[in-house]
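Follow-up to my post from last week.
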Amino acid sequence: MIGEIRDALDRLLHGEVPSPIVPAAGDDDDMAQLCRVTNSLIEAFADAHDFVTALGQGNLDVHVPPRNLLISPYKQLHSNLRHLTWQTQQVAKGDLSQRVDFLGEFSEAFNSMIDSLKEKKRAEHALKEANSKIMASMRYARTIQLSFLPDTEEMGAELGDFFFIWNPKDIVSGDLFFFRSLNDGFLISVMDCTGHGVPGGMMTMIAGSSLSRVLQDVGHDDPALVLHELNNLMRRSLNQQSPEAKSNDGLDLGLCRVDQAKGLLTFAGAGIRLYYSLHGEIHEMKGDKQSIGYRSSDPEYRFTNHSIRLDPSMRFYMNTDGITDQIGGPKGLSFGRRAFTRLLREIHEEPMSRQKSILEQEIAEYRGKEVQLDDMTVVGFVV
Amino acid sequence: MSEGERTAYRFQWKDLGDIQKGRPNLGNQTSVAVYRLMQYTMRDVLAAKYSAEEAKIVLILAGKLAGTEFCKNMLDTNLEFGKFIASLQEKLKTLGVGILRIEKADIDTMEFVLTVSEDLDCSGLPMKGETVCEYDEGFIEGILETYTNKQFVVKEIDCWATGDRTCRFSARLKESQ
Ligand SMILES: [Zn+2]
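User reply:
Got it. Predicted complex:
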C-alpha cells in the first residue's frame, strides 16, 4: 500500500494524474485515512489540471472546481480575466465609463487607453460640430449661388426649347451659366472657373459680375471683344496682372450672341466650344485656346468671333470639361469628347428634356462607382 | 400595533445621523476589525438564540435592506447598465467596501456573475469550508432589485472563507417570475 501511495505521489510530482488507490481489506485505520487523503489529493489535482490547462488556452468558460485550494490563485486570475473581458466588451460597445481597479500595470494601461479613447471621442465630437457648421454655411452658399443662376421662366419665354444640367461636385459649384434676353435676341454663356466647392463658388461670383460689368461697358454685339475685356478685368480684379501676384485663377467661357432679326448666332470661346446639329450631323466651333483672367493669359490677346446662319432645326450645346474628363467605364478612362459628340448625334432630335435625362443617365452609368471629379454643366437650346 | 408585531421596515437613510457633526475629530473612518467585530458577534448571538440557519436569513434580509437604501440614496438608477456598474464600482472602492468586478452580465436573461475582492466582510478570514457573505448576498440583491425593479436571487459561489481569495456571486431572476 505504501508503495502504491509513493508511486501515486511520484506521478503527481511529474504532472500526471494517477488512478485512485483502492484500499486493501486488512488495512488499519491510519492506512485507510492516508489512502483517503491521497485520493482526495489526486482528485483535486485532476480537477486543477483540467482547469489550469483550459485557462492556459484562454478558455474562460471552463468549469471552475469549487472548494479546491490547489487552484485559489488561478481562480483569482480566471476571475480577473473574465472581468477584463467584460469590461473590454463594454468599452467596445462605446461605454467609456469603465475603469480597471488594482490590477497593477494592466490597470494603468487599460485606464489610459480609456482616457485616450475619451479624448478621441471629444475630438470627434468637435470635428462633427465643426463639420455641421461648415455644411450649414455651404448649403446657404448654395442657396445664394442658385439665385445667381438664370431664371428658367425668362429662358423659356425666349428660347424654342432648352435644358441645362448643373451638377456641382460639391455643394457649391465652380461652374456657372448665364442668360440675358435682349430686344432682338439673347446672350447665353457657360463658364468654368478654377477649382470647385467654395473657392470655385467665389470665382463664379466674381466672373458673373465681371461679365455683367463688361457687357455694360462694351455692349453685347461683339462676343470676342467681351472676352477680351473680361480677360483684362478679371486679371485686374484678382491682381494677377503683376508678376509677383500670388494667385493664379481664371476661367474658361463660351459666349453666344443670338440675333433673331438677322438670323445670326455669333460665338466666341475661351477653352469652351459650341456644338451644333445640322442635317443630322454634329459640328463644333472650337473657340480659342486662350483662357480668361489667369496670370498666364495674354492681356493683348484678341479672341475670334464665329458666326453661323440660324436654321430652325439646329440645336446648340455648350458644356464644361467636368463631363468629358469624368473617369469611368470598364477601363477607368475619361468619358471623352468623342463619346460626348457621338451621344449628341444620337439624341439631338429628341425633345430637350429627354436629351437631358439621357445625358444624365449615360454619364452616371459611365461614372459607375468612381467619384465625380469636377463640376458638370451642359446647356442645350433651340433658337 | 406594538413594536414586536410590525412587518414593514422603518429604516431611513437619515437614521445614520450627521456623522460630520457627531464626529468632528474622529471623522468618517473606523477600522475593519471593529466592523467585523460587530457583524460576527451579532451573527454568533443570533445563531445561539435562534439557529445558524435563522441567523443567515436575518443577515441576508438586513443586507438586502441595506442594499436597497444604498442604491436609493447613493446611486443614480437612471444610468444605463454599464455606466451604473461603473459608478457602483467607483462607490464601493471609495467607501472601502470592496473591489467590484463584473465577470458576466446578460441583460436579456438578467444573469450576472460578479466578484468582490478585498471584501469588507470576509477577506483574510480563516478557512471555514462554507461561504460567509450572506450580508453581501442580500446587499447585492437589494441593489439589483432597486435598479431593475425585478426580484433576484444572489448566491455566493466562492468565498475567502472557502479558500478562494475572492468572493464570487451569481445573480439570477427569481424562478416564480
Ligand atoms: Zn465571501
